[in-house]
Amino acid sequence: MEATVIMLLVLSAVHHVDGDEQLPKVSGIANSGCDVFEGSWVHDESYPLYDTSQCPFIEKEFDCLKNGRPDRDYLKYRWQPTADCTFPRWNFIQEGNNVYQDMDRLVAYEKALNTWAKWVDTNVNPAKTMVFFQGVSPDHNNGSDWGEDKARYCEGQKQPVSGPNYPAGPHPAELVVEKVLRGIQKPVYLLNVTALSQLRKDGHPSVYGHGGHNDMDCSHWCLPGVPDTWNQLLYALLLQFYN
Ligand SMILES: *[C@@H]1O[C@H](CO)[C@@H](O)[C@H](O)[C@H]1NC(C)=O
Ligand SMILES: *[C@@H]1O[C@H](CO)[C@@H](O)[C@H](O)[C@H]1NC(C)=O
Fold first, then answer.
1. Distance (Å, whole) CA 83 – CA 77
2. Regarding predicted confidence, which is higher, 18 or 126?
3. Where is each Trichome birefringence-like C-terminal domain found (predicted)?
4. DSSP assignments along the chain, one per residue
5. Which of 4-8, 45-49, 163-167, 235-239 has the lowest mean pLDDT?
6. pLDDT tens digits for 216-229?
7. What pLDDT score does 27 carry?
8. C-alpha–C-alpha distance, residues 212 and 108, integer Å
């Protein structure tokens, strides 16, 4: 998760879109009053959205079918908002002039987010720029998080957690994000994808990330899959903002 968190931070910092509306601060609710990030995963026979053999952009590690994943149900879940919406490890860490061998990840995350928040407050003109922050992408390395103590990482998971609630509760990094965003002055729109992604314990490559049974990847996502939903939700929000 370590590297992913930092990457998302950078990605989020460049997700700027021009616009001239004042946006609600830190919420999953756009103009129409519906929170697209709250809901559950439903089975949909019309899924998956695309065939990876027709898509030249899928990296090998995420093409789980091609890597031998035998089950296919995981391809068939669509995110359904509750509301009726039309719509590698880092070896050191530097802070100022100090270099630390290691640091509690949540502490490091909060420090990094505060640096970013200060940058937004100093540099962003909300009349011209809309700022999105993408929430943390969760992993599924510990079955006791979803009430399956005996699970070996996310291996063999074929279904999402059903319903809208994840047994382990909110991701600790999500709470950090919310804390930092509460303190930011400029309007920032949170792409609140953490909770909906927590439900998808079935969505990771597991042993099908590198040609089958070579390693265990329960932090990235198979494609087609969960990141497509993140993109759909972002797209839906952009349409809401500009209509
Ligand atoms: C993000 O979504 C979760 C689940 O719907 C919710 O509990 C949380 O309050 C949301 N966070 C924000 C800042 O809206
Ligand atoms: C999984 O989580 C539980 C509960 O937080 C903890 O007791 C256990 O040590 C964890 N297992 C591993 C392998 O980290």
1. 18
2. 126
3. 78-236
4. -HHHHHHHHHHHHH-EEE--S---SS-SB-TTS-BTTSEEEEE-TT--SS-GGG-TT--GGG-TTTTT----GGGGEEEEESS---------EEETTEEES---HHHHHHHHHHHHHHHHHHH--TTTEEEEEEPPPP----GGGGT-TT--TTTT--SPPPSS--TT-S-HHHHHHHHHHHH-SS-EEEE--HHHHHT-TT-S-BTTSSSSSS--B-SS--SSSHHHHHHHHHHHHHHHHH-
5. 4-8
6. 999 999 999 999 99
7. 46
8. 34
pLDDT in tens, 54-112: 888 888 889 999 899 999 999 999 998 887 765 533 758 778 778 787 889 899 999 99
- How far apart are the C-alpha atoms of 208 and 69, rounded to whole Å? 6
Region 124-140 average pLDDT: 95
Pocket test for ligand 2, best of 142, 150, 155 (most atoms within 8 A of CB): 142
Domain ranges of the chain: 2-242
Tokens 């996502």 sit on residue: 221
Position 118 scores a pLDDT of: 96
Verify whether ligand 1 is closer than 6 Å to residue 155 (CB atom).
no
Nearest to residue 32, comparing CAs of 234, 236, 235? 236
Q: How far is the CA of 24 from the centre of ligand 1 (A)?
A: 14
